[in-house]
């Protein structure tokens, strides 16, 4: 079944979407969109280092993202410039340094577009194994720290006072972010990872009444975007990563539509046509 | 160690400034301690030191190993991006049975709001929900940071009655923070007056003894509210320094006021 490149792409994309949804919710709740962007951009540095030291790209990206996230946490505590300026600085610097490093390694021929915008159609069986292994691990760990992480999202002080160790949960969350970025880079590329994290979660917000429900719905919306994006890219020969993001955006816009009213209109139109 | 929490000469320094310093405070099971003081006097900071939210820059903060805290913070804003019902908010830091949730909400008078979205609550309703959340987990220490903010006297009296009831029921210690310098909860065992350090402490006097207060608040209030008379031997100057009763001025008064021999009039400058 996995011999067909399109099936492999579908399976890999669904795996990433299911993990990205719940984590994306936390990015929205904690207002970490720019933070996620910074981590994603630093992934390119991880790619460069992987070529330099001849190690696995996913592992290298994970390590660089984890390192940058810890560095950000430390810098935010003592920095004199504001958090968003710091993020903007690191975000684009990491991207630029990554690009320059790759250019220096003249012996390496890489498909830069593939890293920037994803290359889901080139996913191998080994990639799928990494995505599902890392993804399953991420979801299991997230379930373990869920109560503590969510409580500290609502109020850090409340979580700390009532003994939930929010600092520990926050650090683990950073590692989970690094994992998701590492495994989704191949699907949508470093420039679009944040979109896959945020847009499905934002879509789910309008439709859900509780945090757990929102996490599951975000995974479902992400999966729908992957399926829709892949098939539309096949149909209209558009780049796959961006197509997935466009479908996610369309779902988001649809979620803003008055869904109940829309149903009303449909039944009204039906009635009219029946009358006519 | 029997007391639930112990602060031993605890102080917190932030950005080169002492927010609070030299605080000794213990809370035993079943004891109600009311922390009073003007704005910015370090009441919330003291509570955070006691709870372990902040670590003391000097001195020690100790908590009993089996401490189970129910905390009502002074401020809590829930972002609109968070889909959160009252029911889920009550279960924020631990599991609860449906019965526990219903009981706690009914007790604080918001029994019908269980499935309401937190964002749609009024300020008063939200405060009651937070109170319900704190008591639903059956804590052995209840920490309430200005629970009567924005509540009228009738509401305040009802709240104090409920706190006294819960203390009886759970035998929990209560740390109550109030910005009212003179009227405190009658069931309070000990009042601690803070202004960067402990200025004075003692038991409150009954309102019922004062005819004027009884007329002002009514007979029910006289059971619930009490007057606290301050006995300070120093005055806080506007620049944060301290003037002692003998006229000397110093940057701080180590251990001041806790056992003042001669009662002095209460004077907070500024």
Description:
The complex is a heterodimer of chains A (276) and B (270). In chain A, helix 2 crosses helix 3 and helix 9 runs parallel beside helix 11 (240-256). Chain A has 276 residues and is an all-alpha fold. Chain A has one domain: ABC transporter involved in vitamin B12 uptake, BtuC. Chain A has helices at 5-29, 33-53, 57-78, 83-104, 112-117, 125-154, 156-161, 166-188, 193-205, 211-236, 240-256, 259-275. Helix content of chain A is 83%, strand content 0%. Chain B is α/β, with parallel strands linked by helices and 270 residues long. Chain B contains seven helices and 15 strands. In chain B, the strands form four sheets. Chain B has a six-stranded mixed sheet, with helices on both faces. A three-stranded antiparallel sheet of chain B has the order 2-1-4, covered by helices on one side. A three-stranded antiparallel sheet of chain B has the order 8-12-11. In chain B, helix 3 (98-107) crosses helix 4 (123-136). Chain B starts with a strand and ends in a 20-residue tail after the last strand. Chain A binds chain B through residues 28-29, 31, 147, 150-151, 153-155, 157-164, 205, 208-211, 213-214, and chain B through 48, 51-53, 67-71, 73, 76, 78-79, 81-85, 88-89, 92-94, 117, 137, 143. Chain A: Involved in the high-affinity zinc uptake transport system. Chain A: Belongs to the ABC-3 integral membrane protein family. Chain A: It is found in: Cell membrane.
């Amino acid at each position: 079944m996995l011999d067909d490149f399109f099936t492999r792409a579908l399976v890999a994309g669904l795996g990433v979407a299911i993990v990205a949804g719940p984590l994306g919710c936390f990015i929205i709740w904690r207002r970490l969109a720019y933070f996620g962007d910074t981590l994603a951009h630093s992934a390119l540095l991880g790619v460069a280092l992987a070529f330099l030291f001849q190690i696995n790209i996913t592992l290298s990206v994970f390590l660089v993202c984890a390192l940058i996230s810890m560095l950000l946490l430390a810098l935010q505590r003592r920095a004199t410039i504001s958090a968003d300026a710091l993020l903007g600085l690191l975000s684009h610097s990491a991207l630029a340094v990554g690009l320059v490093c790759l250019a220096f390694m003249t012996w390496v021929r890489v498909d830069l577009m593939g890293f920037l915008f994803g290359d889901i159609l080139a996913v191998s069986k080994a990639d799928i194994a990494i995505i599902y292994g890392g993804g399953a691990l991420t979801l299991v760990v997230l379930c373990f720290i869920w109560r503590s992480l969510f409580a500290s999202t609502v109020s850090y002080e409340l979580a700390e006072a009532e003994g939930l160790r929010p600092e520990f949960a926050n650090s683990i969350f950073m590692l989970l972010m690094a994992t998701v970025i590492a495994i989704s880079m191949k699907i949508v590329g470093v420039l679009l990872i944040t979109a896959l994290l945020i847009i499905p979660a934002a879509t789910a917000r309008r439709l859900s009444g509780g945090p757990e429900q929102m996490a599951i719905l975000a995974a479902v919306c992400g999966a729908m975007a992957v399926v829709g994006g892949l098939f539309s890219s096949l149909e209209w020969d558009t780049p796959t990563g961006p197509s997935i993001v466009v479908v996610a955006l369309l779902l988001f816009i649809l979620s803003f539509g008055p869904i109940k009213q829309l149903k009303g209109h449909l039944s009204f139109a039906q009635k009219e046509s029946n009358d006519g | 160690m029997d007391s639930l929490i112990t602060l031993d000469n605890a102080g917190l320094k932030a950005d080169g400034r002492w927010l609070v310093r030299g605080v000794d405070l213990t809370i035993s099971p079943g004891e109600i301690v009311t922390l009073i003081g003007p704005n910015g006097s370090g009441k919330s900071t003291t509570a955070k030191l006691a709870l372990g939210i902040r670590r003391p820059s000097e001195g020690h903060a100790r908590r009993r190993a089996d401490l189970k805290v129910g905390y009502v913070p002074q401020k809590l804003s829930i972002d609109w991006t968070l889909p959160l019902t009252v029911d889920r908010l009550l279960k924020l830091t631990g599991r609860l049975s449906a019965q526990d949730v219903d009981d706690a909400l009914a007790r604080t008078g918001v029994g019908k709001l269980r499935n309401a979205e937190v964002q749609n609550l009024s300020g008063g309703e939200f405060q009651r929900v937070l109170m319900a959340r704190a008591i639903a987990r059956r804590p052995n220490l209840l920490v309430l940071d200005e629970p009567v903010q924005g509540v009228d006297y009738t509401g305040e009296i009802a709240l104090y009655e409920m706190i006294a009831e819960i203390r009886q029921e759970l035998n929990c210690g209560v740390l109550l923070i109030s910005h009212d310098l003179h009227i405190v909860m009658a069931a309070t065992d000990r009042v601690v007056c803070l202004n960067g350090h402990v200025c004075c402490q003692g038991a409150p006097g009954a309102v019922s003894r004062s005819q004027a207060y009884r007329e002002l608040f009514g007979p029910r209030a006289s059971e619930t509210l009490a007057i606290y008379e301050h006995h300070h031997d120093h005055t806080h100057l506007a620049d944060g320094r301290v003037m002692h009763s003998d006229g000397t001025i110093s940057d701080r008064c180590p251990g001041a006021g806790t056992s003042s021999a001669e009662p002095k009039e209460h004077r907070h400058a500024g």
